């Protein structure tokens, strides 16, 4: 089944506003019980099971839950034992935080002779807080070249926001199937079991939050329209697997920052019907509606926010935000069009999904990272356009210009002090500490006797 076939049957999902949805596999019509969640016997001999994504007493608008009607309940597995995966870690506490600018060239894909699936291909770059304390967030990458086979994964610590950069992910969840390609993102929320199949080398980025859930940002003065539209979020339809008498199906659980494994003799993807507002979902970043300045100056980067994960503090900063920057028009007049130089009270992690050489040449985003690479700026560390981009911006003819053509860049933003892991430093083999060189060539133009700056038209 292709991605388009699946999308035509997917439900629309209104992220973060408490809507209740339902779905049942068409092979078992009327599998959803009528009038109650747990009748004495469910249709087709199914078992009822609930999953919560919030406390029982959370307000209605933030109360998250799903009801499953499945062939076997989820309790049917053996005991958990420790699963050793040295690259997925919460050991960032062992290293000092740094105000420097780490940068990574494209993360290395597995060798053809290595068989690495999504679980074994997870690598933690940085984190803050603690999964055990249910506070903070982490940034991972994944690199894999084979499907997961008879194994499933779920995360008890928090939500995964997955950003593919190379290779399509065919993700089977308890709710159904999602195909997520580069240029799309998906969110698999806390506790949801899933399986990832790939067709060749695959790479991408993951933002994990240990508290709260992702939702659409409030629009405020923007009004009802703009940014990501709720109607463009998709969630799967029910699709069950009735596979049993399996020799050794493996269930991997991320719990308290570590991995554990249990074994069972059947597929966990045996949900025939479900309803609720706690579901996995995907979004096509090409549908994002940019908000832009049309007269002068430059908007703060928050206008590119796709999803936000609020903290538990009412009115406080988010745990993390996800921003996407793609093709748009620049039309401002008498304006320094690249982003201004700035120091923010947030860590900025930037990754690149696609790139256009003509856009990269402007250097509007410093560091020159390539698709599959990344860079990070600590909070209150100064940054901005490169020396070449600055000089170009002083001289360019300010006519309407389409920027970021065939280029897709994203940011993970967090007010937390994200600290690199051992892999994020020397362990990844692509660490680069030369990003500061982007600004070494910035020139002094100050002249106290001339208010108007006169520059030649060429650099």
TrEMBL record:
It is an enzyme of class 1 (oxidoreductase). Its cofactor is Fe cation. The keyword Metal-binding applies. SUPFAM superfamilies: RmlC-like cupins (SSF51182). GO terms for molecular function: homogentisate 1,2-dioxygenase activity; metal ion binding. Homogentisate binds at residue 383. Pathway: Amino-acid degradation; L-phenylalanine degradation; acetoacetate and fumarate from L-phenylalanine: step 4/6. The keyword Nucleotide-binding does not apply. Residues 12-285 form the Homogentisate 1,2-dioxygenase N-terminal domain. It comes from the Eukaryota. One of its GO terms (biological process) is tyrosine metabolic process. NCBIfam families: hmgA. Belongs to the homogentisate dioxygenase family. This is Homogentisate 1,2-dioxygenase.
